[in-house]
Amino acid sequence: MITTDICIIGAGPVGLFTVFEAGLLKMRCHLIDALPQVGGQLSEIYPQKPIYDIPGYPEVKAQELVDNLMKQIEPFNPTFSLGERVDFLAKQDDGSFVLTTSDKTKVHAQVIVIAGGLGCFEPRKPVLENLENFEGKGITYMVKDPEQFRDKKVILAGGGDSALDWTIYLSQIAEKVTLVHRNETFRGAPDSAAKVFDLANNGKIDLILSSNLTKLSGNGHLQSVSMKNKAKEESTIETDYLIPLFGLSPKLGPIADWGLNIDKNAIEVDTTDYSTNVERIYAVGDINTYENKLKLILCGFHESAIMCHSAFKYVYPDQKLSFKYTTVNGVNSF
């Protein structure tokens, strides 16, 4: 079991900055995120999108902001459980919590901070008969460890950046890579699309356009995938893995069952410290709601700073909070 002071659900920009604010007060943090990497929407959906409302940065790309946040929190040595969703929350006799993730990781924490942005991102799944029978048995919706696909036959489906990027990467690892897309053109970066076409022209991958997945077959594990093109012609390809990359849908997920006050898929908080109606559970960033709420990253940063000062009393109940400005002593003095 992982033991920490604060467990942060969500490793987006607000969750990452919470580590910094907690670290200044000598509180340890463990972060859990359903995505396989930190950064939340910034890294998963629009890493190259410019952001204009971060103080001190007239313009900063989304991924650059995430990278800088990671450098900022490095002195505080946070730990991470990525590619995992929090499924269960159990309150202990002393008021602390034990969280259990989808991978059965257990985390014991004095305080829970929900910084899940728009919620838990869940994959958009293709509409296929018996899909659930092959989930975890040949069908996966994210690439957590590329080595899993070494010397295997892999079919990827999708037309965005994730589908293009993983097609390019896995072409160097897998025995055979096939990319299936329902259109003739891609939504992803033109440079990545050009690389995919080059790989196909050079025989490094198979590229099937204007086709939709229609059928899955296998005996205990996925063995083949069928698809149909615009002319209604059907073909079947043998494979070890199918990776549908159709994007992500934000959902509140199991958090909705924790007894929190929720209004339109957002968690109600007290603006004095961004606490929820459940003691020791806070919510910061886009996932919370209150009067005059602004869904801005910089507002989430403010909320996390206030929240950490409130959480201190649960982590150090016998101590009086004495906070010095970082400009006086510097980060390394805390």
UniProtKB/TrEMBL annotation:
It is an enzyme of class 1 (oxidoreductase). It holds the Pfam family Pyr_redox_2. Its cofactor is FAD. Keywords: FAD, Flavoprotein, NADP, Oxidoreductase. It comes from the Bacteria. Its EC number is 1.18.1.2. FAD binds at D33, Q41, Y46, V86, F121, D286, T327. It catalyses: 2 reduced [2Fe-2S]-[ferredoxin] + NADP(+) + H(+) = 2 oxidized [2Fe-2S]-[ferredoxin] + NADPH. One of its GO terms (molecular function) is ferredoxin-NADP+ reductase activity. Binds 1 FAD per subunit. Residues 5-293 form the FAD/NAD(P)-binding domain. InterPro entries: FAD/NAD-bd_sf, FAD/NAD-binding_dom, Fd--NADP_Rdtase_type_2, Ferredoxin-NADP_redctase_2. The keyword Chaperone does not apply. HAMAP family: FENR2 (MF_01685). Homodimer. Belongs to the ferredoxin--NADP reductase type 2 family. This is Ferredoxin--NADP reductase. It comes from Echinicola pacifica.
